[in-house]
Amino acid sequence: MTSPYRAVLGSAFDELHPRLRAYFDGIPDGSTGRGIGVFDVVGTPRRWLWPVLAAFALAHVLFPVWEHSVLFTVANVPATSADGSPAVRAVRRFELRGRTREMRDEIGAEKGLIVDRLGSPTVVEAWFSARVTDGALRLVSRRIAVRAGRARIVVPRVIAPVVALTERYDDARGAQVVSIVVRAPLIGRVYQYAGAFRYEITRGSE
């Protein structure tokens, strides 16, 4: 099975660092991609945003925290989107103070963009352009929508937050390094997480 990243990037996929190609390529049926590491930061220091983030936390998207040195794990499994195209379902666990939080999403491809459906059930959809730079993957959001039941409300561009992801491989550390930053117009950075982890494909529940 191909992957949404390979479908969107085309020949540029082969420009990724070899370890990133293993991460973003299709996962064989019956296998799971597993990673473990530590994130330097998770959340936002803007406490006035925490009540809003608390609602997203209930749907397993974002969390009302600002924490450092957070143990992190990820489990990726192959999936199929509603339109029959290949997708990846991910569960990311953050060992925050006092409790474990989960971020759940499904990543697919749509009209040349990466589409990330976040939450369980889906409450946010984000469409990303993708490019490879010096072996690293760079995603930048082009459209954001909020789901309310069966309704999908696209957030106008003038007020929509912009999500930027950079994922690279650090040979010196032998680890994958990821940074995600969410910025809102007129406000600036409203959420982030960044850190490093090691990843491998395992069969079944190994």
Structure overview:
The protein is mainly beta and 206 residues long. 11% of the residues lie in helices and 58% in strands. The protein has a 10-stranded antiparallel β-barrel. The longest helix has 9 residues. The radius of gyration is 16 Å and the shape is globular.
Key attributes of the depicted protein:
single chain; 206 residues; mainly beta; 58% strand; globular
- Which strands sit side by side, in order, in the main sheet? 1-2-3-4-5-6-7-9-10-11
Topology as a string of helices (H) and strands (E): HHEHEEEEEEEEEE
> What is the global morphology?
globular
Count all strands and give the number. 11
Quaternary state, please?
single chain
Rg, rounded, reads 16 Å
Helix content: 10-25%
Low-confidence stretches: none
| Count of discrete alpha- or pi-helical segments spanning 4 or more residues | 3
Beta-strand portion reads: over 45%
- Major sheet: size, sense and barrel closure? 10 strands, antiparallel, barrel
Summarize the structure.
With about 210 residues, the protein is mainly β. It has three helices and eleven strands.
How are the SSEs ordered, and which strands pair?
Elements: H1 4-9, H2 18-24, E1 31-43, H3 50-58, E2 66-80, E3 86-96, E4 99-110, E5 113-118, E6 124-133, E7 136-148, E8 151-154, E9 162-170, E10 175-184, E11 188-203
Antiparallel strand pairs: 1-2, 1-11, 2-3, 3-4, 4-5, 5-6, 6-7, 7-8, 7-9, 9-10, 10-11
